[in-house]
Amino acid sequence: MTKTDNFGSEFESGGCIFLDASQSEDSTKDLFDAIVNQHKNLTEAEIEQLKLDVNNFMKQREEALKNKGH
Asked: Given CA atoms 37, 44, 28, 53 in this order, what sign does their dihedral have?
C-alpha cells in the first residue's frame, strides 16, 4: 500500500521508501527524514546510527554512480 509522507514523498507501508532525488536539494536529509517518520519510536542511539547508515549508503550510491559512468 502506497502512502505519502509530509514531504510529498511516496513510500510503501511495508518498509520500502521511494524518493525522487531529482527534486531534492539534500537527498541524504530527505532519506533520513523519511526513515525517521516511519519509525517514530527510535531512541537517540538508533537515530545516530541511522544518520551514519544513511550517510554511508549515500556515499556508496554516489561512488557506484560514478563508476557506472566510466
From this structure: negative
